[in-house]
Amino acid sequence: MAKREINPMLKTALELGPVLAFFVAYLLLKDRVFEIGGRDYEGFIVVTAGFVPVMIAATGVLWALTGHLSRMQVVTVVLIVVFGGLSVWLNDERFFKMKPTLIYLIFGGVLGFGLLRGQSYLRFVMEGLMPLEDEGWMILTKRVTIFFLGLALANEVVWRTMSTETWVYFKTFGLTAALFLFFMFQGGLFRRYGTGEDEA
């Protein structure tokens, strides 16, 4: 299927909408306990059970509209299904909380493996978004690798030492803000190593 462009606002809604829906649903149901099939499920587990199909549906719509999904999006959805499913099946919220750790470890590990081979795998994913010289891509990839590993560590510290509610806020806003700020602070690198090429 050929890759197609869609309205940026719609793309953002499909990517971030499920996460925001999870956050709102959690705030509404966090203090409730539901009896389903003779077992008690806390609000977090019920919200997780709803989030998994919503995320699958949103990703499916994005694929249908654009004809393309990045490897990062595919891996993320797979891990959401696996660890969200385990949390619901075993009635244990810890599995879902581990998901961001594994996502960032996988991405950081893949980028680090590429660096060991003298390659920037990040370039294959993002080259169309910001043309850089070879040296710039290598520097950015090293920084992103360290950043992802740092996010994995941060997620582990938060979910293991703080409340579920604190983790939900951290996951929804903290990780998103960290990604935004990280790339904002790469402005100097983009200016120094940018090729100035425009995509045709």
UniProtKB/TrEMBL annotation:
Which keywords does this Swiss-Prot/TrEMBL entry list? Cell inner membrane, Cell membrane, Membrane, Transmembrane, Transmembrane helix
Q: Which GO terms describe its cellular component?
A: plasma membrane
Task: State the compartments where it is located.
Answer: Cell inner membrane
List the membrane topology term(s).
Multi-pass membrane protein
Task: State which residue ranges cross the membrane.
Answer: 12-29, 41-65, 72-90, 102-124, 136-154, 166-185
Q: Which family, according to UniProt?
A: Belongs to the YciB family.
Give the protein's function. Answer: Plays a role in cell envelope biogenesis, maintenance of cell envelope integrity and membrane homeostasis.
Q: What is this protein called?
A: Inner membrane-spanning protein YciB
Native organism = Roseivivax halodurans JCM 10272
